[in-house]
Amino acid sequence: MEPKNNDKQIAGEEAVKFIKDGMTIGLGSGSTVNWMLKKLGERVKEGLNIKGIPSSLKTERLANELGIPLTDFSEVAQLDLAIDGADEVDSRLNLLKGGGGSLVREKIVDMAAKELIIIVDRSKVVPQLGAFPLPVEVLPFGWELTARNIAKLGCEPIIRKKEDQVFVSDNGNYILDCKFSAIKQPEILHEDLKRIVGVVETGLFIGMGVKVIVAKNGEIELLK
Ligand SMILES: O=C[C@H](O)[C@H](O)[C@H](O)COP(=O)(O)O
């Protein structure tokens, strides 16, 4: 059996086949996207003419190292394509994202794209979202109160930490990882969370009409 990392690489590299000359591309975040960026960097060196908008500072750094030209929303109103990873994909192709803490910028970038391709290994495909704790980005001010209000929706929010320090997102905010027993109605949960003052965005990406490239044991499957 191929190691899982290889499947991330296979899914990432497959997505680059959808990138055409002249496109403006949303560049997602995470380890699977990093494989896509490496392949895209090679294509750019060979002469492919594209511009990307990164969805995180990490992606921006890697894209710069790889020589991928970048732009931003002061110059671009709509992206031709966005390519992003996910932590879970359900049977209706709803997504749970934000394991790396990049959910807000990812949602802005992904929603600005005419087409969104999600790249995952098979372990991310689940019948129902929610085994992975749902990342919710919140304002630092009063985050404890925001967390108590979120808890009323049926979860125990945990403040995300990195090396014993509170994790701070690219936007200067905190992330609450919210473990619900199951997320049966993601649309409703997303709306309920967004009504809580202090919540910036949730990691639920619902009904975005995505194509999903799934790699399993070296084989590719396309879900849409
Ligand atoms: O905030 C991070 C993003 O939503 C990632 O796209 C997601 O966590 C998947 O990451 P990976 O490809 O590393 O599993």
Automatic annotation (TrEMBL):
Annotated keywords: Isomerase
Catalytic activity of the protein: aldehydo-D-ribose 5-phosphate = D-ribulose 5-phosphate
Domain of life assignment: Bacteria
Active site: 106
UniProt GO MF annotations: ribose-5-phosphate isomerase activity
E.C. number: 5.3.1.6
Key word Protein biosynthesis present: no
CDD domains registered for this protein in UniProt: RPI_A
Pathway membership: Carbohydrate degradation; pentose phosphate pathway; D-ribose 5-phosphate from D-ribulose 5-phosphate (non-oxidative stage): step 1/1
PANTHER family, per the entry: RIBOSE-5-PHOSPHATE ISOMERASE 3, CHLOROPLASTIC-RELATED
Subunit (UniProt): Homodimer.
Function of the protein: Catalyzes the reversible conversion of ribose-5-phosphate to ribulose 5-phosphate.
Protein known as: Ribose-5-phosphate isomerase A
Species whose genome carries this gene: Metabacillus arenae
Gene designation: rpiA
